[in-house]
Amino acid sequence: MKFLRPFQNAIGIDVSDQVIRMAQLLPKNKKFKLHSISARPVAEGAIVDGEIRDSKIVVEVLKDLVKKPSLKHPSTKAAILCLPERKTFTKIIEVPRSNELNFEMNLREGLAEHIPLNLDEAYIDWQLIDPPDSQGKTIRVLVSVAPQLLIESYLTMSKAAGLTPIILETESAAISRFALSGRSKAGSHMIVDLGATRTGIVITESDFVAYSSTLNLSGNELTSLLQLKLNLNVAEAEQAKKICGLDPRRGKGVVKQILEPELKPLVQKIMEIISFYEEHSPKELSVQDITLVGGGAKLSHLTDLIQSIIDLPVSLGTWPANVILPDKKLQDLGPSFATSIGLALRGASNLPWFTDKNL
């Protein structure tokens, strides 16, 4: 199966270690209306770092997700699923110009130097970045690689849940589509995805992912720290994090004093990634802004902290301007559903993120 192929109105399903989220958008008056949305927790250990460890549990969660959604039932069983960023590899490589047969051979040889996978046991998709008629001895190619076993486990799982998987897409591509939909994609933009179990960093150029990486800092770690320092249970720590965040006026600033030292190394790492990217960008591009998505992005005053250290505009990701919400109460869900909405945007718009090439 080619895991990057457009399809009309497919539902987007974001599979993570703790929660599975689903969304569907339908075209309406040159925009997209949210038709269906839902989320379900996953039992601990059923999914670990994106790998399906207990398929029976995950299949039942998927069935319930589609059977009992918020708003309306999905109008299709066709599904676009995201692949875990930690298990996939997206990279720009330079390949010598040649005819089609030699090009594919050169591409695989170039990948072998950059990707720590046995390419005979992986699926490879690629997209030309430089125009075919551009000058130079080499041409830049954006490549995504995923293990075959991972792909097959996601296909088997979704089919067992009664779905028809028609696309498996990298998480970074879906998040980028959510963050940049309806905005100018010119130049370079950074998206920081603060999740429960990890933080993802994505940098885009125009309409493709130029850089992606995963950092260990997670929302769960911040919650555990509050538990330890304030002698709270999980629910109480989550509530303290939600209510107080980094606001110095809430809770006498105690939560801020605990969390801020843990977050500053993340900001420092973001600065290092920006510097690395800008130093190695062949077009000498600079990151223009930073968008925060994921459940952890809603931490109060986090945008202020990052912007006080990094001299760039920082904003919380919101629903794309071209998405119509049937209920304003859904507004706050935007950052948490960034991946599933990004997938659903692809299904509703039928616009490919990658050229459909599979070696």
Structure description:
It is a single chain. Helices cover 33% and strands 29% of the residues. The protein is an alpha/beta fold and 359 residues long. It folds into three domains: 1-86 and 146-182 and 320-351, Nucleotidyltransferase, domain 5 (2-Layer Sandwich); 89-145, Dna Ligase, domain 1, CATH 3.30.1490; 183-319, Nucleotidyltransferase, domain 5 (2-Layer Sandwich), CATH 3.30.420.40. A hairpin with a 2-residue loop joins strand 13 and strand 14. The longest helix is centred in the last third of the chain and has 27 residues, at 254-280. The termini are close together.
> What is the CATH architecture term of the largest domain?
2-Layer Sandwich
Strand elements, count: 17
Task: Indicate the percent of residues in helices.
Answer: 25-40%
Q: Using only CA atoms, what is the Rg?
A: 20 Å
Low-confidence stretches: 1-6, 352-359
How would you classify the helix and strand content by structural class?
Answer: alpha/beta
Mean pLDDT: 88
Shape: globular
The CATH topology of the largest domain turns out to be Nucleotidyltransferase, domain 5
* Tally of separate helices: 9
Provide the β-strand percentage band.
25-35%
Order of helices and strands: EEEEEHEEEHEEHEHEEEHHHEHEEH
Number of domains: 3
CATH superfamily of the largest domain: ATPase, nucleotide binding domain
Major β-sheet, in short? Answer: 7 strands, mixed
CATH C-level label of the largest domain: Alpha Beta
